[in-house]
From TrEMBL:
<feature type="transmembrane region" description="Helical">
    <location>
        <begin position="225"/>
        <end position="249"/>
    </location>
</feature>
<feature type="transmembrane region" description="Helical">
    <location>
        <begin position="269"/>
        <end position="289"/>
    </location>
</feature>
<keyword id="KW-1003">Cell membrane</keyword>
<dbReference type="InterPro" id="IPR052923">
    <property type="entry name" value="UPF0718"/>
</dbReference>
<feature type="transmembrane region" description="Helical">
    <location>
        <begin position="301"/>
        <end position="324"/>
    </location>
</feature>
<feature type="domain" description="CobW/HypB/UreG nucleotide-binding">
    <location>
        <begin position="4"/>
        <end position="144"/>
    </location>
</feature>
<dbReference type="InterPro" id="IPR005524">
    <property type="entry name" value="DUF318"/>
</dbReference>
<feature type="transmembrane region" description="Helical">
    <location>
        <begin position="397"/>
        <end position="418"/>
    </location>
</feature>
<dbReference type="Pfam" id="PF03773">
    <property type="entry name" value="ArsP_1"/>
</dbReference>
<keyword id="KW-0472">Membrane</keyword>
<dbReference type="InterPro" id="IPR003495">
    <property type="entry name" value="CobW/HypB/UreG_nucleotide-bd"/>
</dbReference>
<keyword id="KW-1133">Transmembrane helix</keyword>
<dbReference type="GO" id="GO:0005886">
    <property type="term" value="C:plasma membrane"/>
</dbReference>
<protein>
    <submittedName>
        <fullName>Permease</fullName>
    </submittedName>
</protein>
<feature type="transmembrane region" description="Helical">
    <location>
        <begin position="194"/>
        <end position="213"/>
    </location>
</feature>
<keyword id="KW-0812">Transmembrane</keyword>
<feature type="transmembrane region" description="Helical">
    <location>
        <begin position="430"/>
        <end position="447"/>
    </location>
</feature>
Length: 522
C-alpha cells in the first residue's frame, strides 16, 4: 500500500512548521501522521500521540540521501501511517527530493500527492530571488503556494514571481484557508481511474461517431487526419526536446554569452550561426536572449538570435524535409525568409532604440521547461547530468505537447473551413489566408520542431504563401513566447517586438507571393 505524501517546501522561517501544526490541529487530528523534517526552525512540532516524527540534519541529507530514503521506507513498512508530511529544507534543490522519493524502491510505497510552497508576503519579493536555484526549483515543482500574511502588508498578495516560475501554480493566503484545505483534499485521478476515463471517452466517441455520422459529419475522416498528423509530428517533437535538453544541461549558461561579438554586424552573423548550431526550442531561446541583453550584447544581434534560432536549426530543417516529402525549395524558402525576417527585425532596433526595456526585479525568465540547473555538488556527476536531461526532456515534451495536440485538432477542422474562406475573398483570398495563417500560428503556439507536419496537413487547402507565413512567423512570436517575454521585459518593448515581427514577416512573405512563391508546388 502506498502512503499518501504531502511535501511542504519554502525558505527557513517561512512558516512550514506552523502550517504543519495548523493542518494537524484542524484537519488531520484523527489521522496517524508521520512528519519528516529536514530542518528545524523557531517553532517546534506539536507533540501529539498520533504524530510520529523523523528528523534529519542538512549535513546528513547532503552526504547520505539514499540512506535517509531507506530509513523512511523501513518506518513506513513498520508503522503504516495514514499520511506522511515532508518538511523539505529550504536551501536544498527540489530535484534531490524527487530522486529520493521517486526512485524505483520508493515508488511502490510513497505517493507524492501534493507539493506546497510556503512563503510570507515580504519574502516573495526579497528573500526568494536571493535564494537562487534551490528556491526556484521548489516553486517550479509545487502544485500550490500558501502565503503567510504579515503585520505590515494588507490587501491583495503580489504573487507574480510565483507565476513567472510556475504558471500553473495555485496561490492561497491565510484569508483563503478553507479553499486551501479543499485543494489539499482535491481528488487526483490514479492510473486505474485514468483507465476508466479513457474507456468512457472511447465509448462516448463511438456514440458520437454514429450520432454525428447520421448528420453528415465525417467524424472518421477527422479522426484519421488527427492521428496521422500526430504520429508524424510526435517523433520530431521528441528529437527536438532531447537535443534542446542536452544543450541546456551540458552547455554552461554563459558559454554563448562569452563568445558573442560586441559589434552589430558580426553579432548578427554569429547569431545566425549559433541559431543553426544550437537546436534549442523557441521557449528556450528566450532566457538566453535576456542573458545576452543583460551581458551587454547589442540588442539587434540578441533579437536576431532569439528570432532565427527556432527557424533554422537542424531539427526544424529535418522535420520540414520530412513533412514536405524532401521538397528542398520549401526548406530553402523557410530558412532563407526566416533569416531575412530575423535580421530585419534586429536592425529595426537601431531605429529609435528602445530604452529601459528590462524589468528591474531579479526574477528569472522561465521557459516552459522550468529551472533545471544542477544542484550544488552534482556538477561533475555524469549520472546526475543525464538524469537531469531526461527529466527536462520529459517535462518539456508534455508541456509543449498540449500545444501540438491543440494545433493538430484545429488544423484538422480548418482544412474544410479555410478553402471556402479563401475562395470567398476572390482576388484578396491569398492575402486573407496569409493573415489567417499567421494569426493561427500566433494563437496555437506550436513547437518549431513539429509545426511543419501540421502545416503540411493543410497544404491541400492552401497555396504555398500562407503556409510559408505560418512556418516563418510562428516560431518567432506566439502567445507562449510573448507571455515569457513579459516576465523579463517591459510590455511596450514586447508589443513593439511582436508587432514588428508580424509586419516584417507579412511584408516579406507577401513580396515572396507576388514573385510567384518561388515556383513551389505542394
Amino acid at each position: 500500500m502506498r502512503t499518501p505524501t504531502w511535501v511542504i517546501t519554502g525558505l527557513l522561517d517561512s512558516g512550514k512548521t506552523t502550517l504543519i501544526n495548523k493542518l494537524i490541529e484542524e484537519v488531520l487530528h484523527e489521522r496517524n501522521v508521520l512528519v519528516i523534517q529536514f530542518e528545524s526552525g523557531e517553532e517546534a512540532l506539536r507533540n501529539d500521540r498520533q504524530i510520529q516524527k523523523l528528523v534529519f540534519s542538512k549535513s546528513r541529507l547532503e552526504q547520505f540521501p539514499m540512506s535517509i530514503t531507506d530509513r523512511i521506507l523501513e518506518y513506513l513498512e513498520q508503522y503504516n501511517p495514514d499520511l506522511m508530511l515532508v518538511e523539505w529544507n529550504g536551501m536544498e534543490h527540489f530535484h534531490k527530493l524527487e530522486e529520493m522519493l521517486l526512485q524505483f524502491s520508493a515508488a511502490p510505497m510513497v505517493s507524492v500527492e501534493k507539493v506546497i510552497y510556503m512563503a510570507d508576503e515580504t519574502g516573495l519579493q526579497h528573500r526568494i530571488p536571493d535564494a537562487g536555484a534551490a528556491a526556484f526549483s521548489q516553486i517550479a515543482g509545487s502544485d500550490c503556494a500558501y502565503i503567510r500574511a504579515t503585520k505590515h502588508l494588507h490587501g491583495k498578495t503580489d504573487a507574480s514571481l510565483l507565476y513567472n516560475c510556475n504558471p500553473d501554480i495555485r496561490v492561497f493566503s491565510e484569508r483563503k484557508w478553507e479553499r486551501f484545505v479543499r485543494e489539499m483534499f482535491h481528488f487526483n485521478a490514479q492510473p486505474g481511474h485514468w483507465f476508466l476515463i479513457v474507456l468512457t471517452a472511447a465509448l462516448a466517441y463511438l456514440f458520437a461517431f454514429n450520432l454525428l455520422g447520421d448528420f453528415g459529419v465525417p467524424v472518421g475522416r477527422y479522426a484519421s487526419r488527427f492521428l496521422g498528423v500526430f504520429l508524424q509530428a510526435a517523433p520530431f517533437l521528441a528529437i527536438g526536446v532531447l537535443l534542446s535538453s542536452a544543450i541546456q544541461v551540458y552547455i554552461p549558461p554563459d558559454w554563448i554569452q562569452r563568445r558573442f561579438p560586441e559589434k552589430v554586424l558580426t553579432g548578427q552573423l554569429f547569431a545566425i550561426l549559433a541559431g543553426f548550431c544550437l537546436p534549442v526550442c523557441d521557449c528556450a531561446s528566450i532566457p538566453v536572449f535576456k542573458s545576452l541583453v543583460k551581458k551587454g550584447v547589442p540588442l539587434p544581434a540578441a533579437v536576431t538570435f532569439m528570432l532565427v534560432s527556432p527557424v533554422i536549426n537542424p531539427v526544424v530543417i529535418l522535420s520540414t524535409w520530412y513533412a514536405f516529402n524532401g521538397n528542398y525549395r520549401m526548406i530553402a524558402v523557410r530558412c532563407g525568409l526566416g533569416i531575412l525576417c530575423a535580421v530585419i527585425c534586429g536592425l529595426t532596433c537601431l531605429i529609435r532604440t528602445p530604452g529601459d526595456y528590462l524589468l528591474e526585479e531579479a526574477v528569472p525568465v522561465q521557459s516552459g521547461c522550468g529551472d533545471y540547473r544542477l544542484p550544488t555538488g552534482n556538477e561533475n556527476t555524469r549520472a546526475a547530468r543525464f538524469s537531469m536531461m531526461i527529466r527536462h526532456a520529459q517535462n518539456e515534451f508534455f508541456a509543449v505537447g498540449k500545444y501540438l495536440l491543440t494545433g493538430i485538432f484545429v488544423s484538422t477542422l480548418f482544412q474544410d473551413i479555410i478553402p471556402s474562406a479563401v475562395l470567398a475573398g476572390s482576388g484578396s483570398g491569398p492575402w486573407k489566408a496569409l493573415l489567417l495563417m499567421m494569426g493561427l500560428a500566433f494563437i496555437l503556439s506550436l513547437c518549431s520542431s513539429s509545426d511543419a507536419v501540421v502545416a503540411r496537413s493543410m497544404a491541400g487547402s492552401l497555396p504555398a504563401g500562407p503556409l510559408i507565413g505560418f512556418l516563418v512567423f510562428g516560431p518567432m512570436m506566439d502567445m507562449k513566447n510573448a507571455a515569457m517575454l513579459l516576465s523579463g521585459f517591459r510590455s511596450k518593448f514586447v508589443v513593439r517586438l511582436a508587432v514588428t515581427a508580424f509586419l516584417v514577416c507579412f511584408i516579406v512573405v507577401a513580396l515572396f507571393m507576388l514573385c510567384g512563391s518561388g515556383g513551389i508546388w505542394i
